[in-house]
Design the sequence.
């Protein structure tokens, strides 16, 4: 079976996506940011078709090494993300800018720049990224996060256009709030009930990387749950 490259596999969304794709028979090459994350995944998915690599996806040399060490690549599922520095623009810190744009914009650029030539040469492939509702509906206290996710979205749509003549597809999912353990801390049951379940996102990803979605590219998929658009 062809392989998929996955980032953010050890995050709040990652295990649900990894499990779903393994059940579809995919071989997975996953990037994690530290040895603790690698050990956790190895324990959780012991005996499965899973290769784990420790990669800093904000460094192009490490991204290139990871991509080149993977075999029979069919696509990329880019789950990695983060949030910090909730503030208005007038109070925003440069360190938060560097962190958010490094993780969402720079990393996405490096990943797409390294994998697109391989998929174009093969004449097939699928890319799925996870941006956010705020990429198209920014709030006043998450400007840097919203802008960095908008960059990720735009890079994905550009990849779709570059890949279109080569049957390489790229699509982007826009959740509002995902029902992850970190997000659920301190939240009320009423709030949590409105959020998107990781399993639902995993199902959509499984569809988008499959042949059933061979005509779908350059598309955004809002997944807002019970949160208004």
Sequence:
């Amino acid at each position: 079976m062809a392989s998929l490259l996955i980032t953010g596999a050890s995050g709040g969304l990652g295990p649900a996506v990894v499990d779903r794709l393994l059940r579809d028979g995919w071989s997975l090459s996953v990037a994690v940011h530290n040895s603790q994350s690698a050990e956790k995944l190895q324990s959780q998915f012991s005996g499965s078709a899973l290769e784990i690599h420790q990669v800093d996806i904000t460094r192009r040399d490490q991204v290139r090494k990871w991509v080149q060490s993977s075999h029979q690549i069919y696509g990329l599922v880019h789950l990695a993300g983060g949030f910090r520095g909730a503030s208005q623009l007038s109070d925003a810190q440069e360190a938060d800018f560097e962190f958010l744009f490094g993780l969402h914009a720079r990393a996405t650029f490096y990943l797409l720049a390294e994998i697109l030539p391989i998929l174009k040469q093969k004449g097939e492939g699928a890319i799925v990224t996870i941006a956010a509702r705020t990429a198209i509906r920014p709030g006043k206290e998450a400007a840097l996060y919203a802008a960095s996710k908008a960059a990720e979205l735009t890079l994905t749509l550009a990849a779709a256009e570059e890949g279109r003549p080569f049957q390489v597809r790229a699509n982007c999912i826009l959740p509002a709030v995902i029902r992850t353990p970190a997000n659920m801390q301190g939240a009320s049951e009423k709030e949590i009930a409105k959020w998107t379940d990781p399993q639902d996102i995993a199902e959509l990803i499984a569809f988008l990387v499959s042949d059933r979605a061979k005509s779908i590219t350059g598309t955004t998929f809002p997944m807002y749950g019970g949160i208004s658009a």
About this structure: The chain has a mean pLDDT of 93.
